[in-house]
Specification:
The chain is an alpha/beta fold and 335 residues long. Helix content is 40%, strand content 16%. Helix 1 (3-11) packs across helix 9 and helix 6 (165-178) packs across helix 7. The chain is globular, with a radius of gyration of 21 Å. The chain starts with a helix and ends in a 14-residue tail after the last helix. It has helices spanning 3-11, 35-53, 76-81, 102-109, 126-135, 165-178, 197-210, 225-231, 249-266, 277-286, 300-311, 316-321, and strands at residues 63-65, 68-70, 89-98, 116-119, 139-146, 182-189, 213-216, 236-238, 241-242, 268-273, 295-297.
């Protein structure tokens, strides 16, 4: 079976031939993409789990001939009876730009599974949606506005290089106070600021004081944000895929397929999306399929805690009992 065909067939809306298994999915909450692509999805993602994990949960025996991956266990009977794969891979999804509108914000919060919610400060519904996300069990980040090379319209509270250190730190503290329950931050825009070591050092010093993490959205290939975070001992991750630079279902599906390939190959990846109806609709269908591929959704703090625990075996028990990333904010943040 073609491994890429499996993923594309399961997660792409392009296939439209008749399908006899339509009834299997008639009660599923799925976007209005073609019937055949959806009906194939359950069987095809199961077959993909066989290709990658074999029958034991480990990497199956594979051979590649003319681009084909073959596995003796991949038969229709085996696929049809295959349970969900044991989760061995990790996917982190962050939805940015929450706070301007209530309905898209609540739609993101209602997405199934462990979706991270990044809230823009100084927006009309920032505090309300941060509280709602926290109550729903989601992980909340501050989506911190930072200066861009294009000098596009700046959000209120944007961190810029022309601020003094004192003003810079005050602005970041004010932004954090706008987003209750934030456990870390990622950058909104920031193609300019994330290239500046001095200013990113100020960011990391503030995060260190609050036991917060940093996620580099990587809006610039010249970013020094992750390296600066590591320099200051700040737990950090970096974005690999933007899901919705193009706002149409076909493009989003293609990016999601690319994301799956990275996760299955490397074991972990971070994706960022936005509260667009197209993105929400696609994720509402796609996220429940991940367990059949052996992929778990995770919060940023979970991944960072696991990384820290695995890198310091002598402190594992203490780190699991007292996670390195604690819910923050000061009493001035409110709730």
């Amino acid at each position: 079976m073609l491994i890429y065909w499996h993923i594309n067939s399961a997660f792409s809306p392009e296939n439209a031939s008749p399908c006899t298994r339509q009834k299997l999915f008639q009660h599923a909450a799925i976007p209005p993409i073609t019937t055949c692509s959806i009906a194939r999805a359950g069987l095809l993602v199961l077959s993909l789990s066989l290709v990658f994990f074999g029958t034991t949960g480990q990497a199956g025996t594979q051979s590649e001939t003319n681009g084909r991956y073959q596995n003796d266990d991949v038969t229709e009977a085996a696929i049809a009876t295959r349970p969900a794969a044991r989760p061995t891979k990790t996917l982190v999804i962050i939805i940015d730009d929450i706070g301007n509108d209530l309905k898209p914000g609540h739609d993101v919060i209602d997405l199934p599974g462990k979706v991270n919610v990044a809230v823009l400060p100084f927006t009309p519904h920032a505090r309300e949606l941060a509280n709602s996300a926290h109550l729903a069990g989601k992980e909340v980040l501050l989506h911190a506005p930072m200066s861009s090379i294009s000098k596009s319209l700046q959000s209120k509270g944007t961190l810029t290089p022309d601020l003094s250190e004192a003003a810079f730190r005050t602005s970041l503290a004010d932004a954090l106070a706008q987003v209750p329950h934030a456990r870390g931050i990622n950058n909104h825009q920031g193609s300019d600021l994330t290239q500046r070591h001095v200013q990113m050092s100020w960011v990391m010093q503030e995060l260190d004081q609050r036991a917060l993490y940093f996620v580099d959205s990587r809006t610039s290939t010249q970013t020094v944000a992750a390296a600066t975070a590591a320099e200051f001992g700040i737990p950090n991750l970096s974005r690999r895929i933007f899901l919705d630079n193009e706002r149409n279902k076909s493009a989003i599906a293609a990016r999601f397929v690319e994301l799956l390939r990275i996760v299955l190959s490397e074991g972990q990846a971070v994706a960022i999306g936005h509260p667009y109806p197209e993105t929400i609709e696609y994720l509402r269908w796609a996220l429940p399929q991940l367990d059949r591929l052996g992929i778990r959704l995770a919060y940023v703090s979970e991944v960072l805690n696991r990384q820290t625990a695995s890198s310091a075996d002598s402190e594992v028990d203490d780190q699991l009992t007292h996670p390195i990333v604690a819910p923050v904010l000061s009493s001035s943040a409110g709730s």
